[in-house]
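Pipeline run #58 for the internal structure catalog. This entry was flagged by the ingest filter as a single-chain record with no existing model, so it goes straight to prediction. Upstream metadata was stripped on purpose; only the residue string is passed forward. Reviewer on rotation: M.T. Logging verbosity set to normal.
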Amino acid sequence: MTDTIQQIVSDLTTRARAAARTIAAVSDDQKAQALIAAAAALRAASTEILAANAKDMAAGVEHGLSAAMLDRLKLDPARLESIAAAVEQVAYLADPVGQIIDRSERPNGLVMERVRVPVGVLAIIYESRPNVTADAAALGLRSGNAVILRGGSEAVHSNRAIHAAMIKGVVSAGLPADAVQLVPTQDRAAVGALLAAQGQIDMVIPRGGKSLVARVQEEARVPVLAHLDGICHTYVHAKADPAMAEAIVVNAKMRRTGICGSTETLLIDQDYPDPAGLIGALIDAGCEVRADDMLMEIDPRTVAADEEDWGTEYLEPIVSAKMVSGVDDAIDHIAHYGSQHTESIITADDAAAKAFLAGVDSAIVMHNASTQFADGGEFGLGAEIGIATGRLHARGPVALEGLTTYKWLVHGNGQVRP
């Protein structure tokens, strides 16, 4: 790692820390107005942003990016308007900063309060989606944090244009430009410097593929908020309504196969009356079903699953399917192969649902609902920075509240400790 890269990151974090102190003290209304101005600036700069994106798209084609990667990278007027509207939406969300989580009075008269405060300085490391530049900036700013953004080289021109427009809006509302900084170099050493910035950065949030998230989790010397895989399960219990089960299973897998909340493994109870209906509905919808021996006998169009399939996040129209002997067997399978993201049980049996909801240790556990609802907007949280699958700080969709921590406020009237 060069001294130059270290100096760049040191400068970014020093300026971010100063900006974080300023933002933490500004009013809710001023933060909201800054985001409204940022959204207006994005719309005003649409020509420049789309031209920058065209450069990234041309480079992506030249370098052989996949169709899926190019689709994530591509901006058009409708997508840009959606980005601006999402920033505007964050402006109207309730501000978590200053919220009293709980309050109690001790026998000696001391009043104890836990109050939400910003985390401080956030580093967001992400890949080819330029919308993350705007989303991360908006969520970080609204929750009172300073943000350092490091986007992927595939979207470098798009990210710079979006960032420039947003900063124009933020500054017009009286907030510091250093509230949202974009790392000015695409040198990979900058990522390593950010991950090593213990004491300068308070939390790192990776958004991208498995290799990026794995690198961040392996190298970071600061807390990380992330999920590595979205190996989500849908378990169809013996007492599931067949019509409901079929509708949910097809939606959970096929609505959007490339999102982290897409079901990757279907577990079917051995006493469920119509496993053939579930397998057939998936295949008819264009999904490849990689099945265990029992399910392969039901539909010859299935493909044999191997051990690797149970731990694979396909992100395409492929699902692994297995017969299980009951709730406990389903829970055991999820515990062994899952990624603690999102799991769902389909059943009319309340006792079975209760056992599943209590026994599965994932960030999101559902009953009679599609795993595709694993999304901050569907949870009523507005925009999200991602789905966290760890056990500390935040779990599930991470929005404004997940970008805060708390401090204790103690109110006395002269008490001294005996």
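catalog note: The chain has a mean pLDDT of 94.
catalog note: The longest strand covers residues 111-118.
status: ready for reviewer M.T.
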